[in-house]
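Checked the freezer inventory, then went back to the computational side. Two predictions to log before the end of the day. The first one is the construct we discussed on Monday; recording sequence and tokens without edits.
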Amino acid sequence: MSTMQRVLAADTAGKAGLKVHEYASYALAGATPVAVVSSKGSVLQKTADFVFSLAIPVHSHICMNAVVTDYFPKVARGPARLGVLGMSVVTYLGIMKVNLSGPGLTETVRGLWRKPEKAAAAAK
């Protein structure tokens, strides 16, 4: 099985694929509390953001391939797996864009619970 075949069929690629999924799960479980308690712009927050940038696409790529295996007919699995790979790459690139040219993934998510500055200023 070639490397590309292993990536496309990540859920059935053997023990290595399962280990990668396991490590991505550990990375997400470890980075989440670090992101929650870290201060804005800190090294811990930036580290968590970059862990997320790899772990989220890898974890979701393998899980979505399992969905393809379970629910798609064999004839449609190839195109569906290519679509999953494309979305995994787009997810990685999107998170990296937020991390490198924006506030970072952690601050972006935290912003969902903040009042907009104009509304907070008008309320005073």
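The second is the one RB wanted added to the comparison set:
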Amino acid sequence: MALFGLGMKMNDLKDLYVEQLRGLYSAETQLTEALPKMADAASTPELKQGFTDHLVETQQQIQRLESIFADLGEDPTGRTCKAMQGLVAEGNDMIKEKAVSAVKDAGLIAAGQRVEHYEIAGYGTVRTYAEVLGFGQHADLLAASEQEEKDTDQKLTQLSKQINLEAASA
């Protein structure tokens, strides 16, 4: 008898799918609180805007997850994503750093990209579960969120090229 998270039995892939979705829901919810702080801490206008834009996407991703939970007849709450707690804590540490603006922005980008990579992995996993379980509409919704995370990561990479140069010469 395998146990997962809050002690729920994992009897099949659908049980794991629901718990993984709950983890993503928790992660995205935590991120809605972190992104405005990251935007406030950023000094580069494009980085500020990027964090603000991603907040809107994150809210849409939460709505997609809520739609999936409604379709499954499941509650999205009940699990705390500890990985996102750690990633958010690292971002908060960077926000508090006394650093030259470009250096702080470079650190915020690094924190943001760690979050994006975690989310890309999470969405890719549950998208695959949805496909295997025959939840095609869920897979489409999850693929949209996964692509947004990839796009955000790419935008952060592009921003980092100039900001890292500025940080190097600070």
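For RB: Confidence is low (pLDDT under 50) at residues 1-5. The helical segments are 13-41, 45-72, 82-96, 101-133, 136-168. Let me know if you want it refolded.
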